[in-house]
Amino acid sequence: MMKLGPALAADYTIYLPDRRGRGLSGPAGPEYSIEREDEDLAAVVNHTGAEFVFGPADGGLFALHGAIGLDRVSKVAAYEPLLMLGRRDDDEIRRVFTTMQDLIRSGRGGKAIVFSSAEAATRAARDGRAPPRSPPRC
């Protein structure tokens, strides 16, 4: 982001928040969850007046999820977001996100990303949307 931000700065006002558990922000903390990411995005948007949001990988997922409740946000660009298709009442989605949160809280963020990607690919293959593959090992 430190290279992309300056490249876009001639045309946009760029804010590069230091997300929880990254850079200089310190550990994500025991209460970390997608809801905390939503709250953090809302704080940045409300403070800056931003209308556009961008995020790569898990940041793309959080940008999409967090922007749902932010009327001010008119566009979201998500680069390779970690996604699973489903409904809010989908037990499998809930299981995956709960497991991801548990892994992140225990300091295994990398395993959480691999787990999410493997689950999404497995579900897509089972639903006939992608060729089957073996999930990566951690």
Structural overview:
The protein is mainly alpha-helical and 138 residues long. It folds into two domains: 1-81, no CATH class; 86-138, no CATH class. Helix content is 46%, strand content 7%. The chain contains five helices and two strands; from the N terminus they run ααβαβαα. It has helices at residues 4-8, 34-48, 58-67, 91-105, 109-126; strands spanning 52-56, 75-79. A two-stranded parallel sheet has the order 1-2. β1 (52-56), α3 and β2 form a beta-alpha-beta unit. The longest helix has 18 residues, at 109-126. It is globular and about 45 Å long. The two termini are 26 Å apart. The model is unreliable at 130-138 (pLDDT under 50).
Q: What is the end-to-end distance?
A: 26 Å
The whole-number mean of residue pLDDT values reads 81
Largest sheet, order of strands side by side? 1-2
Radius of gyration: 16 Å
Structural class: mainly alpha
What is the helix fraction of residues, given as a range? 40-55%
Q: Could you spell the SSE succession in H and E letters?
A: HHEHEHH
Question: Can you tell me the residue ranges where pLDDT is under 50 for at least 5 consecutive residues?
Answer: 130-138
Number of strands: 2
Number of domains: 2
Give the biggest sheet.
Answer: 2 strands, parallel
Counting DSSP H or I runs of 4 or more residues, the number of helices is 5
Approximate strand percentage: 5-15%
- The geometry reads as globular
